[in-house]
Amino acid sequence: MAKDMLGREIMTAPDLERMTPQQRQEHFQESIVRDPRVLPTGYLEGLRDRAQDMIVRRDAEQAAAQQRDMPNAS
Question: pTM for this structure?
C-alpha cells in the first residue's frame, strides 16, 4: 500500500467506505499533524516559501491599489 510523507498508509476511497462513521472520524483525527517537528524539513520549507510568496504578492497588490486610489498631487 502507498504511504504518505510520514510513512503512514494512504487510505483510499474504498478503504474509507468500508469504515463506520466513527472509524472515519477517528482516522481523520489521527491524521492531523499537531507538531510540525514531525514533518519533513523540505516540506516545511516549501510551505514557508509558498507563504512568503503569497505575502509578497498580497503586499504588492495592496501597494498597487493604494497607488491607484491616491489623488494626483499635481
Answer: 0.57
Q: Are 1 and 10 in contact (CB under 8 A)?
A: yes
Cα dist from 12 to 28, 29, 47, 65, whole Å: 13, 16, 25, 45
Map out the domains of the chain as residue ranges.
1-32, 37-74
Cα(8)–Cα(10) distance, integer angstroms: 6
CA angle 40, 56, 67 (to 5 degrees): 170
Q: What's the pLDDT tens digit per position in 38-56?
A: 999 999 999 999 999 999 9
Partnered with residue 1 across adjacent β-strands are: none
